[in-house]
Each structure stands twice: as C-alpha cells, then as structure tokens.
Design a protein that fits this description.
Helix content: 10-25%
Largest sheet: 6 strands, antiparallel
Radius of gyration: 19 Å
Strand content: 35-45%
Number of helices: 3
Mean pLDDT: 84
CATH class: Mainly Beta
Structural class: mainly beta
Number of domains: 1
CATH architecture: Beta Barrel
CATH superfamily: Nucleic acid-binding proteins
Order of helices and strands: EEEEEHEHEEEEH
C-alpha cells in the first residue's frame, strides 16, 4: 500500500545517515482533505463523541466515516450545539446499516447505528484523512472544522488530481 510522505524539514547543517534516526530529519505525513456532510453523531459526555459523515451520490447520502479524532472539548460542544436542533428519527444514509463490520473498523453495523443520533444533513465539515479504502470509507479521519460557506447538497466525492487538472485547463496560463 502506497503512503504519501514528504520530507519537509531538516537541520541545515545535517547529513543523511542511512539507517539512523538522529532527529535532524523529520518526515510529515500528507493527509488528504474532503468536505463531508454530517448525517448523525454519537453523543459523548462533552457534546459529541464522534460524527457520522458522507457525501452525495445523486440523491443518496453515502456514509464514509465515523470521525472521532480532531476534536477538543470546545469543538465537541460547538458541533453538538449546531446539530442538536436538527435531530430526525431516520438514518439519512442510503448505505447504512452495513451487513458486516469492515476489516479496519470503519463500517457501521446495525448494533453500531443503535447508538447514533441522526440529523438532517444540512451541516458540512472539513475532514482530513489518510486514504480511501476499497470499501469507499476513510482511513484515519480527523475533524478539522465546520464549513458554513458550503451547501450540503453540493458535497460529492472528490477525486485526487481533479484540482490540478482543472487548474491546468485554466485560460491565460
């Protein structure tokens, strides 16, 4: 499996030492980003424990991740306050519950969905993640922020390289 890493910093006077970890060279993982629609959450003692997110494929909201990382107590409360008035009784995701748990634990089975509070899919969150899995879920997802400037109905799955392709097609370059 290919992981994207980028050497982004080193001490100016350092040299590469094969097989050694000197601390003079530091590698950072490059995460991808995607705006996703919040369709539910699992409550926690400080607001939300995690959010349930997805994207639109036609008229269907497709589940891709339960996002738990990236929250601090203040953002857990902020997201909870934003979502609590949007509660609905039915799950808004077309592909939930999933029949079996996924290999890496990204899936939501019927037992898992029993803990969820479903909401009208009107709120968009910026999510960072390592990669898409073969089952169309996110691996190592992390909450970044809410996106008030985005209409939830316009959120679709982004494909790597689209931004570069469109940028290179721009006139006047």
């Amino acid at each position: 499996m290919h992981r994207e890493w980028k050497e982004s910093s080193k001490r100016k006077d350092s040299f590469y030492e094969a097989g050694q970890r000197t601390g003079s060279w530091v590698k950072y993982r490059l995460n991808r980003g995607q705006e996703l629609v919040i369709g539910g959450y699992i409550p926690g003692p400080r607001g939300v424990d995690s959010i349930i997110v997805g994207y639109y494929k036609g008229d269907d909201l497709i589940y891709v991740a339960r996002v738990r990382a990236g929250f601090v107590p203040a953002t857990r409360r902020q997201v909870f306050e934003r979502l609590r008035s949007l509660n609905v009784p039915q799950c808004p995701f077309a592909n939930l519950p999933e029949a079996v748990p996924s290999r890496w634990g990204e899936g939501l089975t019927a037992d898992d969905t029993a803990k969820c509070i479903w909401v009208r899919p009107h709120v968009v969150a910026q999510i960072e993640f390592l990669e898409w899995t073969e089952s169309d879920h996110l691996r190592h997802s992390k909450f970044v922020r809410l996106r008030d400037d985005k209409d939830a109905r316009t959120v679709v799955k982004e494909h790597p390289g689209e931004a570069q392709k469109f940028a290179s097609d721009a006139p006047g370059d």
